[in-house]
Amino acid sequence: MMPDPCNPPLRGACCFPDACISGTTAAGCADASGSYQGDGSNCGGVTCGECGDNVVQSVLGEECDGIDNSACACSSCYPPGHSNECTCAPPPVCGNNIVEECEQCDGTDDSACPGECDAMTCTCPLPVFAIKWHSVHGGGVVSVGATMKLLGAIGQADAGVATGGTYELSGGFLGGALSAPLPATPTAVPTYPHGAVKQRYVSFAPDAGHTNVGYRVKDVGSGSQYYISTPRTTPASVVGQGLTFVVSDASPILNDWTSLTRIHVGGCMIAPGDNAASSTGRAYEVTATNDGASFSPPLTVFTAARPTAANARFWADVVGLFSAGGDGSTTPPTPANSWTPPNRNVSGFDISATLQAVSAAPTAPHFTWV
Known about the structure:
7-stranded mixed beta sheet, 3-stranded antiparallel beta sheet, rod-shaped, mainly beta, 370 residues
């Protein structure tokens, strides 16, 4: 095919390893295995390249050139001036006991993974991840059981001190003074007459092992709760009897109760049962505390049940019967020449027992009954 004289092909410089020829076409330069430098170029205005310009010139026999060394993979590029400049060095030899390019270890040169170097690939085994230790953290609550108390912290850091700027965080065991041991749960009084249900008092045995304790009484039905006062010292007849009253719902009144074997709590919130259909009276929960924040498990104590007669003056049911020979069927058992507990019936026995209490007769019921 004859060239078109009206549209001659564009020409430029063509580079070779040892020469540069101007006026060649792109196709002609490629056919001669040269490097075409662009239309309109000439050898006076181009540099055909040299080892060290960071550009691989295949026409110059380069395999690599400085940073343009992707063809060398795990070997290096020989620098300008080397007898094999701008060509890739031989790849590493796995098994020569020398760690080279792309090798993690090689035979005895295994400091990266002593005794575990793969002889075929000169690589170390993949790391095995393991949780060497861990800790379990509780929530920010107070757990109570028997005489023990456990304080928990939300987001508690592990043991140690972490610092940053002007801040310091101490982790591990909770700091500060040790909390006082939690008082024991109050216990029921098992013996007569204090263990019997009463109209206007609830009785319990205090914690004998702690000297700084307060008690709280809660009406289970209404939810009302109050702390109790220190034992009354007047009149003289109640000294040492453990007579107290509900006085406050704000803070505990701490006291040494160790000299008492029982506590009797009275007051406006202590009342007999108000449901004639129920065989039990009003329920109260008694708990112990030494700080007003943590409490022992509760002791549930009942007052006397309401008489079955709908029109009975149930506050007047203070006793049952007078038993000359005793009554083992009551709870607790009634000894001889004593009054049995309230029996859900208002009768002349209640009037007689009340008069005996007022006159301090030898057979009068305990003062907490009337």
